[in-house]
Write a structure and sequence with these properties.
The protein has 162 residues and is mostly helical. The chain has one domain: Ferritin, CATH 1.20.1260.10. The chain is built from 5 helices and no strands. Helix 1 runs antiparallel to helix 2, helix 3 runs antiparallel to helix 4 and helix 4 packs antiparallel against helix 5. The structure holds MU-OXO-diiron.
Length: 162
């Protein structure tokens, strides 16, 4: 495995941890907005992101490369309302998908079959992540500002299991 590849995998690991931190920021804002179910959903998502980061951590160790967790910035520009948060979540997941694809294309160029296979899991996971993010936006659009609809969505999101 090249140094460049190790660097890219380390960067992705840090990005996954940063994603968790961003979603914690979303959860905090949603608690402030009195939407505890949606806040719970993003808390669970934050934990999932930590697991994504750990997959990369363990993969690097398996290949005898040292994982180097980078700085995780404080979540910034958290939107003021739920709709803005939902949009930001989808934009973020698209950014993560593009990042994973970038590493995969690099692995293909390097004939690094192991890493290509390792990244396939993330490619499938990103399909799900983007679908979940779009699902929240769609549900909010269906509620169309109706308080009862929003409460129902909040309750449903509160049932997410870790
Ligand atoms: Fe780990 Fe939400 O991508």
């Amino acid at each position: 495995m090249t140094e460049e590849m190790i660097g890219r995998l380390n960067e992705q690991m840090t990005l996954e941890f940063s994603s968790g931190y961003l979603y914690l920021g979303f959860a905090a804002r949603l608690e402030s907005l009195a939407l505890p179910g949606a806040a719970h959903w993003y808390r669970v998502q934050a934990e999932e992101e930590l697991r994504h980061g750990m997959r990369l951590f363990e993969y690097l160790i398996r290949l005898s490369a040292e994982p180097m967790p980078g700085p995780v910035p404080a979540p910034r520009d958290i939107p003021e309302d739920f709709a803005g948060i939902a949009d930001a979540g989808l934009r973020h997941e698209r950014f993560i998908t593009a990042s994973i694809e970038g590493i995969l294309f690099y692995a293909i160029g390097e004939n690094d079959l192991q890493t290509q296979q390792f990244l396939q899991w993330f490619i499938g996971e990103q399909v799900e992540e983007e679908a979940n993010a779009r699902g929240i936006i769609d549900a909010l659009n269906r509620a169309d500002g109706c308080k009862a609809g929003l409460m129902l969505l909040d309750e449903k999101m509160g049932g997410r299991e870790g």
